[in-house]
Amino acid sequence: MHRLAATPLLLFALVYPTAAAAQDGPSKAVTLAAMKRAATFYREDVARHGGYVYFATIDLKRRFGEGEATPDQIWVQPPGTPTVGMAYLAAYEATGDEFFLDAATETAEALVYGQLVSGCWQNSVDFDPRGKRALRYRNGKGNPKGRNFSSLDDDQSQSAIRFLMRVDRAHRFEHEAVHESVEVALAALLRAQFRNGAFPQGWDGPVDQRQPVLQASFPEYDWRTENRVKNYWDMYTLNDDLAGSVSRVLIEAHATYEDPRYRQALERFGDFLLLAQLPAPQPAWAQQYDYGMRPIWARKFEPPAVSGSESQDVLETLMTIYEATGGKRFLEPIPRALEYLEKSELPDGRMARYYELRTNRPLYMERRGKVYSLTYDDSNLPDHYGWKRTSKLDRIAERFERVKSGEKPKPPSAKSVARKAMAALESLDDRGRWVTVSKGEKLIGDNRFPEGDQYLSSEVFSENLEALAAWYAATK
Prior knowledge:
The structure is a single chain. This protein has a single domain, classed as Glycosyltransferase (Alpha/alpha barrel). Helix content is 39%, strand content 11%. It has 12 helices and 19 strands. The protein has helices spanning 28-46, 81-95, 98-113, 156-170, 176-191, 242-257, 260-276, 308-325, 334-343, 393-405, 414-427, 458-474, and strands at 55-57, 63-65, 67-69, 73-75, 124-126, 150-151, 202-203, 236-237, 288-289, 306-307, 351-352, 354-355, 364-368, 371-375, 388-389, 435-437, 442-443, 447-448, 454-457. A 5-stranded antiparallel sheet has the order 3-2-1-19-16.
């Protein structure tokens, strides 16, 4: 892997405001002290083996990822370990204080421990070789008979790779274990790319490169009952915003290591997104495709359909790939997709997760016990899934106009950066904790705390530490 020795890559795409507005926020000394207090508590009291979960009870006796975690389990999937690690790196980039780099490095080493033989990660790491979640790790310390399935679902491997690349750069590529882990992970990701540029949901070995390169089409069979494959995860997927997360990895890998393979893989992936656009009257994208480039079933509540959520992610990704490569072909599908999606918004302004193939009727599921059935009725939807999503089409359309004209996005205002920093500072308690009070709502990972209960959130910690880091950088 080529080592880039000059022109440091900023850890953020954020352009910080000038110090002129420093009077609107806390002083540098106060900001740094708060960052240190918060990071010390999270690193020393909340971390396990250097890693993190989504939530912990206020007494730290119970921890939660996708369900309750043991003391030896950490979570990879955001907002878990890589999310917290990114916040430490944000603090280091802003301050230059080695304390934050040390914290980020401990977090990176926890991920290195959980890297699979197949090259990337699952949603969690279990440091107990006999634990229920112990997998087949590269270090040989896991379960030798455990699962070896590297996953791109829910930004699992992607977030780990992005974080480890940034730690690698921060160490000037001299932390041997981290550097080797990144090399292995990126090589595995490149091997997982299909001939047509697509990626699967995951892999435990090389993907089949003999598949034909085809344009997406509607099924000519009864999609409701036919072609329900069991191994959909081996096929082409865009589920859970995979397009954006994989593209960010490839863009950052190319910027960090100047290896042309990552730029080539990005362009090939962009070409797949062009192929995956369905024909009129629904020129958008599905969650999942078979090798014949037809939308297919994934899980039993994920039917073949046009996806309002994933289509929005693809539109954003096509613009990102255009900005990274200059390939004008990546902008060509956007106008007709936007026009179609805008006409498909629900009466309340949201997007349906699924639109029936050809008819374009919003498509939902109802559940009785463990049995799901298709319905057009949205009055009794299962609450474990996002059947309707916020429409981002106005923002996407505005970005498209900027991208076409070459206009750069405006940086956040100094006042907004100061306001976020003040909010983070004021909500930090004397122990260095950002405590959240439950409203009884359902949280990521199907977690829920009783109303009024207090808990700690890795997402809240990371957002607040990054807000303080952004302000500290602005006051330089």
